[in-house]
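Exercise: predict the structure of this protein bound to fe (ii) ion.
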Amino acid sequence: MLIAHLSDLHISAGAPETAPVRLDAPQMAARVVADLLALPQAPDAVLITGDVADGGSDADYALVRDILAPLPMPVFVVPGNHDKRGPMRAAFDSTIPYAAPDTLHFEAEVAGAHLLGLDSLIPGRVEGALDTAQLDWLEARLAVVQGPVFLLLHHPPFPTGNAHWDASALRQGGARLAALLEAHRTPLRLLCGHVHQAFHSQWAGHYAAVGGSPAFQYGFGFDGTEEPPLSDGPYAYWLHHRRADGSFGVHPRQVSLPPRGDLAP
Ligand SMILES: [Fe+2]
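Solution:
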């Protein structure tokens, strides 16, 4: 089993709405897609943990679909704060089995991996929340799933090491989510986005991670309270490899991106 974890593509058909997003973010996402296609072993699935589009228009998602179209494996997405539920559902309705009409959480199975996607979007807000209905749904699903579980959630429910990010992360539903995960005996893998800096962590007894972003990346902000400076550091996404003994290795796959140059800040 090989699962790729990407995040925060911020694809925009027009000018980006988000100030730090590089103007060529669609081309950078296409580079990542080309890299996925060039891997010596094709991933069984590609998981994208939110902010797939930057502004969330129908045209943005049409471009998202065009950019992801060359991928032959299933692609699963959860919404981030820059996504819009209506256009996003319309773009992925044919490939993602959404579990409810009003939110974009889903359950799927691919290559023996059990995928549970959560929707933490609060329209118009940067921070995120999980409502009771979704947490009830998650509790019911966790009670019956078997095998490796990948839990997708844009807003990290765990501390990021930077107060600025913690203030805009998951602000509602985190305590119950922690209780649900602590009660889940089988190790699962919690995949997040939002922070635009790739790192691993551990939370509620499970592996947790944030994917980076090919649209723009932040530098380190350890113990800070301000938004960290932007970084031109190398970009990498994660490859989760399930070995023959059932254990996982998480491998960074670096993709060479040109510097932002003199793009908007
Ligand atoms: Fe983002």
